[in-house]
Amino acid sequence: MNDQIINILKGIIRQGQQAGANANMSAKRLFQMRSQGLLKSSYVTGAALRPLYVVISKTLKNLDNSTLSQVRNNIIKASEEIERFKQYANLPPLYGVGGTAIGGYEPLPTPDPPYLPEQEGGSGYCLVLDLDETLVHYFEVGSEGTFLVRPGCDQFLTEMAEIYEVVIFTAAMQDVSTTQSFFFLN
Amino acid sequence: MLNQIDKAKRIKYRLYRQHALPHGPVFVKDLSRIGRDLSKTIIVDNVAENFQLQPDNGIFIKSWFDDMNDTALSELAPLLKQIVKKQVPDVRDALRKFRDQMLE
Question: What are the pLDDT tens digits along chain B (104 aa)?
């Protein structure tokens, strides 16, 4: 049952991330689930709703004022409600769409901070970028791994490197992401 | 290949899973451990849980799979440029204001 709810929510979030109009539909579906009491028994954590919340909030601009405040209140209520279920945080989380679960991996020894040497000159501003589903998308065709690069990635990196110290922070394993770096930098 | 990457010199450093901290059932990216001033550090990630320890430093970007009409990166660039151009003293304040605007 809970797996089912998580899958529905994942679907809603995926939908919500695709287009503004869909996000509004997703919001309605979420509130419907809430009124049916489905959210109360789910594993959803507070942070998990955030992606959906941000996506929906963007679409609120397009609604008329009365609907806007109503929808907004509903979202806030839903967030609060889900926030109360942090006790389930030790259970499988709901991800935006990606996410890196610990299950199946031995945690690696964590190096001592600070991870980076002192900043050399520059603007002082540091931009930390995720890799998977942010800049690239990795997928497998048969046993072959391959990558797609998000449109605008090359220009984005070039522009950002002029004003920021750009750091890639991926939760992927090092061997995989090194290959990825090769791909989109070449 | 490594030389080619270095030629570009756009990405200064790379952090991997061993730099992410186990936090409940997920790995989180704890910015306080990287050794940078948090008032000048921004993280862009498609998974908000990843920056839950420093939510004010985070910009959530929608997940990208294969939509070649996606414009999220080019839409994000102006905000990031403004922050540096204006030399904002604390990026967390700037991003908070930006989020509030989005909700109005």
Answer: 223 333 467 888 888 878 888 776 677 899 999 999 999 999 999 888 889 899 999 998 988 888 889 999 999 999 999 999 999 999 999 999 887 776 55
End-to-end, the C-alpha distance of chain A in Å comes to 46
Q: Say what the pLDDT of residue B9 is.
A: 73
CB contact under 8 A, B11 and A98: no
List, in order of start, the domains of chain B with CATH numbers: 15-103 (3.40.50.1000)
Domain interval for residue A163:
126-185
| Cα dihedral A84, A86, A92, A96 sign | positive
In percent, the amount of chain A with pLDDT more than 90 equals 12
Q: Chain A: nearest CA to B19, how far in angstroms?
A: 6
Rounded CA separation B91/B48 (Å): 17
User: Is any Cβ of chain B less than 8 angstroms from the Cβ of A133?
Assistant: yes
Domain contains A97: no
Do residue B44 and residue A109 have CB atoms under 8 angstroms apart? no
Is A146 inside any structural domain? Answer: yes
Task: Assess if residue A109 is contained within a domain.
Answer: no
- Whether B86 and chain A come into contact, CB under 8 Å, resolves to no
- pTM (2 d.p.): 0.61
Stretch A106-115: mean pLDDT:
72
Same domain, A67 and A141: no
Cross-chain Cβ contact B25/A108 below 8 Å: no
User: Considering A64, A88, A112, which residue would you say is the last residue of a domain?
Assistant: A88
